[in-house]
Write a structure and sequence with these properties.
Blueprint: E1 2-8, H1 29-40, E2 41-42, E3 45-46, E4 50-56, E5 64-69, H2 80-91, E6 100-103, H3 107-116, E7 121-130, E8 141-144, H4 152-158, E9 163-167, H5 175-196
Helix pairs in contact: 1-2, 1-5
The structure holds S-adenosylmethionine.
C-alpha cells in the first residue's frame, strides 16, 4: 500500500467551514483536498493501492487524523469541493463513508502506529537526497508538509525510525504536485518490473 501523510497545520477540525471558502474558513482545506485528489485518483478510477492520512492541526479541536482509502471510498468525486464536503460530513459524523476514517490522533501517534505495522518512511524535503539516486520502495509512507513545511520537531520524530529524506529537486513544489510525481515514479518503476518479468 502506498501511503501519504500530509501535515496540515491550519486544516480545521470541526465541520463549521464554508465550502465557498476552503482556503480561509477551512484552514487551507483547498490544499488538503488537492493532495487527496492527487493521492487517490487517476483518470476514470481510484488508486486502490493508496491511502492518505491528513493530520489536521487547526482549530478548534486539534489534532485529528483524517484517513482516506482508495479501495473503500464511495460516491466521492475528485473535485476539491466534493472532497471537502465529504470531510465536512465526516467531521460532523453525519454521513459515514467506508473510505473515510476520522480519529483523534496526533502526528506522532500516527507515525508510531505505522511503525508498528512495519512501514518505511520517506520524508519529502527540498534538501533531501535526489530521488533519481534512490531506489524507491513501493509499499512505504511518504511524509509531506503543507504550505509552510513539516515542523522540525515532527521531522526529527519520523527520523527516529527507518527512513530516508528525499528530494524532487531544489524547486519548492506544492505538496499535491509532489504526490503526483511520486506516483509517477512508482508507477514507472512497477511497469518496468512487470515488463521485465
Ligand atoms: C509548498 S512545500 C513547503 C515549502 C516550505 N517553504 C518549506 O520550506 O518546507 C510543501 C511540502 O512539499 C514537499 N516538497 C516541496 N518541494 C519539494 C521538493 N523539491 N522535494 C521534496 N519535497 C518537496 C515538502 O514535503 C514540503 O514540506
Amino acid at each position: 500500500m502506498r501511503q501519504f501523510i500530509l501535515y496540515a497545520r491550519k486544516a480545521v477540525t470541526s465541520p463549521d467551514f464554508s465550502l465557498d471558502d476552503l482556503p480561509g474558513s477551512g484552514g487551507r482545506m483547498d490544499l488538503v483536498a488537492r493532495c487527496i485528489c492527487n493521492a487517490l485518483w487517476i483518470s476514470h478510477d481510484l488508486r486502490r493501492d493508496s491511502c492518505i492520512h491528513v493530520v489536521a492541526c487547526g482549530s478548534p479541536n486539534p489534532p485529528v487524523v483524517i484517513s482516506l482509502y482508495g479501495d473503500r471510498l464511495r460516491n466521492v468525486s475528485p473535485d476539491e469541493r466534493n472532497i471537502a464536503a465529504w470531510i465536512k460530513k465526516a467531521l460532523a459524523s453525519k454521513r459515514r463513508n467506508p473510505g473515510i476514517n476520522i480519529r483523534k490522533l496526533s502526528f506522532q501517534q500516527l507515525v508510531e502506529e505505522l511503525v508498528s505495522e512495519g512501514n518505511f518512511f520517506y520524508i519529502l524535503h527540498e534538501q533531501g537526497r535526489d530521488i533519481a539516486r534512490v531506489k524507491l520502495k513501493d509499499d512505504s509512507v511518504f511524509v509531506l508538509g503543507d504550505h509552510i513545511g513539516l515542523p522540525g520537531e515532527e521531522e526529527k520524530f519520523v527520523a527516529r525510525f527507518e527512513h530516508e529524506k528525499i528530494s524532487l529537486g531544489t524547486t519548492s513544489y506544492l505538496a499535491s504536485q509532489c504526490i503526483t510525481v511520486l506516483h509517477y515514479e512508482l508507477d514507472k518503476k512497477s511497469s518496468i518490473c512487470i515488463a521485465g518479468e
